[in-house]
Amino acid sequence: MAQFEEVSKQSSQHPKPAGLVLQYGTAGFRTNAKHLDHIMFRMGLLATLRSKKTKATIGVMVTASHNPEEDNGVKLIDPMGEMVTPAWEGYATQLANAEQGDLLTALKDIIEKESINMSQEANVFVGKDTRSSSASLSQAVLDGVLLNFDSFLNFFLHFSHHFYYGLVTTPQLHYMVCCQNTQGKYGEATIEGYYRKLCQAFIQLTKNASNCTDDQKHLSVDGANGIGALKVREMESHLRRELQISLFNDGSKGKLNHQCGADFVKVQQKPPTGININPGERCCSFDGDADRIVYYYTDSDGQFHLLDGDKIATLISTFLKELLTQAGLDLKIAVVQTAYANGSSTHYLEDTMKVIVRCTKTGVKHLHHAAQEFDIGVYFEANGHGTVLFSKVAEEKIQQLAEDPNMNDERKRAARLLQNTINVINQTVGDAISDMLLIEAILAIRGMTVQQWDAIYSDLPNRQLKVKVSDRRVIDTTDAERRAVSPAGLQEAIDTLVKKHRLARSFVRPSGTEDVVRVYAEAETQESADSLAHEVSLAVYRLAGGVGDEPKPLH
Ligand code: 16G
Ligand code: ZN
Q1: Contact at 8 Å (CB) between 449 and 216?
Q2: For labeling, which of 164, 193, 273, 549 is most exposed (least CB within 10 Å)?
Q3: Ligand 1 pocket, Cβ-based, cut-off 6 angstroms
Q4: Position 262 in a domain
Q5: Within a 10 A sphere around the Cβ of 69, how many other Cβ atoms?
Q6: How many folded domains does the chain comprise?
Q7: Phosphoacetylglucosamine mutase AMG1 domain spans which residues (predicted)?
Q8: Is 237 a catalytic site residue?
Q9: Do 298 and 319 sit in the same domain of this protein?
Q10: pLDDT tens column, 26-73
Q11: How far apart are CA 186 and CA 179, in angstroms?
């Protein structure tokens, strides 16, 4: 076929370094940008195959999220805006690692296995973040995608409806892919449509928040010097004066994710550089592709207070549960977390809020999947990635109630608030911009300060460390990563160490994005959490083949 000849010709423009092996991990491919050109071209090819297979628009996002500026990455987005299925993750890895001469065979193999009709049209949306490497790497994706178009005429015919290419946050691309494949039922498949839908819902939500002062409408945003900053600027005109944003780390001078952004703030447990924080003021940080958000403030003693994904999940689920009660709706609501969730949050949710809590493995797809099992599934990773999913039944019941002419005012008001809440949320994936609007709306409606929100429960002090080992795959885990089954003796060692501390918990897991083993510990005091994290790191180092120097105590 002519297409295959073209593939051979074009792929020599995007040669694979011989011997380089990369894996499609939890967040797609991610490594130093200089190793990724061939991967991008091949993911362009794979996206067109996926599109032909599903007869739907597929997304390809070029970003390395919170990684340093030098890195880049790519992931595929399936028709409903969700992560691509495990089988196709496997194809992605196969295609990425085929040596130059084997590329055609690898492609034909996928076509055969999936019985793909090559004459089916393909539609792909390509998004990129602001990294300097993203421009050329996304061009390489396009080279792969455009092979599908036999002629330029055909390409231009397709351009307006079935093709998108540009700077977007990761969640914006997920959103547009979903809109495109649901014929606009989820919203209009444009960036403008995204702002309109979210901001209108936000304005509707906050218009009755009468006790909200101008001070409370102010929020400082750390854009991590990335795409999120650009997009917040773009959105501002849609918000009128309902939310006044001071934007820091907008990319005009600082380096992407460097000493700033959600990951830095969460892991370092301190404010980012490049932001002016006045005591008591509400601030938030996005990560480099704006799919994570964390909040924080400093108090009058200069003490830093972090409100992470767990605090966000608590705020949102409390709000939703109250609205359900007011609306008299019997819908099953649950919160989905990972092992990283602070023990205090889990206790609060289960014991005080009486909501169902589920724990899954790390990685958005696991949480998303678990959340789909409930009428309303609130999922958040402690690192600030999360959203809320509403089942079709839940959305219908809420709509019916909101439109019922015989309903009393209180129940109707609650149903309308629920409707607008649904519209402000990006259900396809965790979204810093959408989460920010939802959180700001909830605080405004409840007349709640960031301090009051923080006081809902007190986090247990915790510490995250990483240990380098020669092969992190020797660590195998079970029970949603809360227990290690190998190497032998490790879990027993952790159990013994945990017993030496009060209110303690610890677990280890191989990272899906870095060549390290991650260690998490929490305990009654920071000293205790720090020493437990160090002791467990030592156990990992000794039992799992640590390399380099032995982990040193933190104090
Ligand atoms: C990826 C995941 C994120 C997870 C993180 C863990 C997606 C889209 N992203 O960024 O959910 O928290 O990996 O990283 O799934 P780690 O395995 O290196 O700890
Ligand atoms: Zn991200």
Answers
A1: yes
A2: 549
A3: 26-27, 65, 362-364, 381, 383, 385, 511-514, 518
A4: yes
A5: 18
A6: 4
A7: 194-294, 308-446
A8: no
A9: no
A10: 889 999 999 999 999 999 999 999 999 999 999 999 999 999 999 999
A11: 5
Mean pLDDT of 224-230: 98
Domain region containing 97: 2-167
296-348 pLDDT, tens digit per residue, is 999 999 999 999 999 999 999 999 999 999 999 999 999 999 999 999 999 99
Mean pLDDT, the chain, integer: 94
Q: What is the pLDDT of residues 464-478, one digit of tens each?
A: 999 999 999 999 999
In a domain, 98, yes or no: yes
49 shares its domain with 156: yes
The domain boundary residue, chosen from 305, 338, 358: 305
Annotated binding site: 65, 287, 289, 291, 381-383, 509-513, 518
Nearest atom, ligand 1, residue 381 CA: 12
Count of Cβ atoms closer than 10 Å to residue 373 Cβ: 14
- Cα–Cα distance between 61 and 74 in angstroms, integer? 5
Task: Clarify whether residues 146 and 198 are in a common domain.
Answer: no
Verify that 57 and 129 share a domain, yes or no.
yes
pTM, two decimals, is 0.95
CA–centroid distance, 288 to ligand 2, in Å, is: 6
Across the range 1-25, mean pLDDT stands at: 86
Best CA proximity match to 85, nearest among 359, 368, 334, 339: 368
- Tokens representing residue 263 in the block: 């990951």
Percent pLDDT > 90 in the chain is 87
Q: Are residues 239 and 127 in the same domain?
A: no
Q: Which helix (H) or strand (E) holds 248?
A: strand 244-248
Residue 441 counted as domain residue: no
Domain assignment present for residue 178? The answer is no
The enclosing domain of 347 has a CATH number of 3.40.120.10
* Residue 481 backbone class (left: φ over 0; alpha: ψ -120 to 50; beta: rest): left
